[in-house]
Write a structure and sequence with these properties.
mainly alpha
Length: 87
């Protein structure tokens, strides 16, 4: 039984760290897309923010990755609440 609990706590740690990686990747993808499109618009002497920077495929992918990170973190928190404490 203690081996199963140790493995379960390892899964919780894996979920927690993978949530951080996914969330950071989402922020990077969104930021790279947003800054890149705004820089291109500024070089074209346009004063407005392009719609693609918020709603384009890069922004959507970044938001999905950020959402995946949040979902993994919530799953790790729920799993750790159900498990007995470590010995």
């Amino acid at each position: 039984m203690s081996v199963v609990l140790s493995l379960a706590w390892m899964v919780v740690a894996l979920l927690r760290y993978s949530s951080l990686i996914a969330a950071l990747a989402g922020v990077v993808v969104f930021g790279k897309n947003f800054i890149g499109l705004n820089a291109r618009a500024a070089q074209a002497d346009s004063a407005e923010i392009p719609v693609e920077s918020w709603r384009g495929p890069g922004a959507v992918m970044g938001a999905k990755l950020l959402g995946l990170g949040v979902l993994l973190l919530v799953a790790s928190l729920l799993l750790s609440a159900m498990l007995p404490p470590r010995l």
